[in-house]
Amino acid sequence: MHAKKATTVYLDYRESDCAHQTVQSYQYRLAKFEDWWGDRPIGEMSKQDVHEWKQYLNDQDLAKPTIKSHIDTLRGFLEYMARLDYVDDDLVDVADSPTLSKGENVRDDEVEADVAQAILERLDRFDYASMRHTLVLLLWRTGMRTGAVRGLDLDDYNPDEQYLSLEHRPERDTPLKNQGEGERMVAISEETCRILDDYIDEKRVETTDEHEREPLLTTKHGRIARNTVRKWCYRLTRPCWFSGECPHGRELDECRGSVERSDNYSYECPSSVAAHAFRRGSITHFLRNDMPETVVSDRANVSTDVLDKHYDRRNEKEKMEQRRDYLDNI
Q1: Do 142 and 199 fall into the same domain?
Q2: Dihedral (CA of 31, 36, 42, 45) sign
Q3: CB 229 within 8 A of CB 166
Q4: Buried b (16+ CB within 10 A) or exposed e, 65-98
Q5: Judging by beta carbons within 10 Å of its beta carbon (0-12, 13-18, 19+), is residue 330 exposed, middle or buried?
Q6: 75 Cβ contact partners less than 8 Å away, ≥ 6 residues apart
Q7: Residues 6+ apart with CB under 8 A from 58
Q8: Does pTM surpass 0.90?
Q9: For residue 196, how many other CB atoms are within 10 A of its CB?
């Protein structure tokens, strides 16, 4: 059995006991493994191969938590393959997961404000009011989770009062992470509304989904898919896309993840990040611009404890200097 068939068998198995987004995460990580393994039968995998896969990940300039997630996914895959007698049982022993020290389980991927601005400026100039432009605009300016952005319908946008209404609709494939407690109205600026209006009037593909709803963000296949959100975030955060330069010293015509070669391997760029990095960067940008933590917490639907641990990328000196501004009023 070749790798692609084997991973399909494993993902079908996991569909029965995992959330859809979790299975998609497994699919993304195993796709990277498939590319590396190639056309060889999965039954030929040896302990040395598992070791070389781990070494390959270490050589990709990936963060330690990212490496851990890839190895953990492979371990689960090999465990199931061993149960089906497709691979040797002892391969799992080699796929041991790296131990993270305190604090290393907090991910650092973040779209910085200047990067977000550069991406939006290029989209505004060359791809104005497209689905991609609108997607990045909403991710950056609202700080919403990707599932919330994906779940928006046309009727959830109120152009007159300039806000988006978020609703938990699990029975229709658009749940909110915090369920009913995640329902809220998110104010948006006049400029954001202008671009949204132009997208709806000129670029949006008119369609309904399988539940007869009219999604806000659409493709010719209907509501924007989770994989499509992930794909475009990886593509658009490559420095060679928005600046034409590579900060990693790579030759663009030789780098498989560059705009010169293919969009299909954009995730191989060390600077490209997943969609959640827009949320982390957006929240940090709000805080650096003196938006009170309670306001950010309500707007982004995240507790202040989680906000401080997982999203706030300000250093202690930045926080001190922002507090200093209030001293003259005491």
Answers
A1: yes
A2: negative
A3: no
A4: bbbbbbbbbbbbbbebbeeeebbeeebbebbeee
A5: exposed
A6: 92, 95, 96, 97
A7: 67
A8: no
A9: 21
* Residue 53, pLDDT above cutoff 50: yes
User: Please, are residues 277 and 109 in contact by the beta-carbon 8 Å criterion?
Assistant: yes
What SS3 class is residue 227?
A: helix
Task: Give the number of domains in the chain.
Answer: 3
Strands 184-187 and 163-166: antiparallel
Asked if residue 255 and residue 299 are part of one domain, the reply reads: no
Q: Is pLDDT larger for residue 154 or for residue 321?
A: 154
Least Cα distance to 157 among 204, 221, 113 occurs for 204
Residues 246 and 293 in one domain: no
Could you tell me the CATH number of the domain that includes residue 223? 1.10.443.10
175 and 213 share a domain?
yes
Within a domain: 199: yes
- Structural domain boundaries, residue 61: 3-94
Domain match, 243 and 184 both? yes
276 is a domain residue = no
Dist CA 18 CA 162 (whole Å): 37
Do 10 and 56 lie in one domain? The reply is yes
Query: Quick check: 282 and 311 in contact, CB under 8 A?
Result: no
How do 163-166 and 157-158 pair as beta strands? antiparallel
Q: Which residues pair with 41 in a beta bridge?
A: 2
* Token representation of residue 84: 């089906």
Name which residue leads in pLDDT, 156 or 317. Answer: 156
From 63, 94, 125, give the residue that closes a domain.
94
Domain boundary pick from 67, 94, 121:
94
Look at 21 and 231; give whichever has higher pLDDT. Answer: 231
CA pair distance 155, 214, nearest whole angstrom: 8
Structure tokens at 20: 């859809």
CA R_g for the chain: 22
Which DSSP string corresponds to 17-45?
TS-HHHHHHHHHHHHHHHHHHTTSBGGG-
Residue whose entry in the numeric block shows the structure tokens 């007869």: 212
